[in-house]
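Appendix B, example 12.
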Amino acid sequence: MTLKNNTRDFDPEIVTDFREKMSYGTYLDLPVLLAAQNPVSVPEHHDELLFIIQHQTTELWLKLMLHELRAAIEALRQDQLAPALKGIARVKHIQRTLTEQWSVLATLTPTEYAQFRHFLGNSSGFQSYQYRAVEFALGNKNRRMLTVFEADAPAHALLTDMLEAPSLYDEFLRYLHRAGFDIPAAIRGRDVTEAWTFHPKLVHTFRGIYENASQNWAAYEACEELVDLEDNFQLWRFRHLKTVQRIIGMKHGTGGSSGAAFLQKALELTFFPELFAVRTEIGA
């Protein structure tokens, strides 16, 4: 078919009158969403809009990631592995989107950023409570982080709840125990407000799962999904580090951190260390 004048006609049933109907903009609350970008630089710098939208879209994706992780944790609690893995699969796609998104911010040059950075005051991505909640959901608990959010009651309450709740890994290990795998009682009953630390005894359990994958396929598949999750998170952290280095070099962060040096340390944090340690044992 050839379009006349490079213009397509409306289909007869396309709705055009929204005076009494739900529209796309109404459903998404676009007037509020699109009015939420408020540059603070004076005079307003062209590139500040990029900086704001980059971080706002990250927060939206983090909101969905947290939504999916909490649902996956609850599914594991109820021994519903398939829905949990479906949620984790969605989180993995979100992670890839967030990682690729750094390439947009990386178009901001040091000179451009320097022209409005000082207007940000002490605001910093370090203060993202949703990011901390995601870390807590995955097991990187740190009670001291709560002090950053004492002035924000809802954020403080959310993080307190996430701190005191079992992580995704905690619930996965409890699921494995109920499925007949050897998960020591001390691990199942650990203080879930503490950051996860390496437990050598779990490596033996995971080795049995991996070396007998066909007999333990559900557990084997779940282990690999968790490995993907941590891999993706570390790639995001690394891309964050390299983007920061590209834009501000080794300057301190606006929130008072050491900047790139502080982000470098995050690469040493782990979520599921036994699932990586077992790779050294398999076939040895």
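The mean pLDDT is 95. The CA atoms of residues 217 and 273 lie 21 Å apart.
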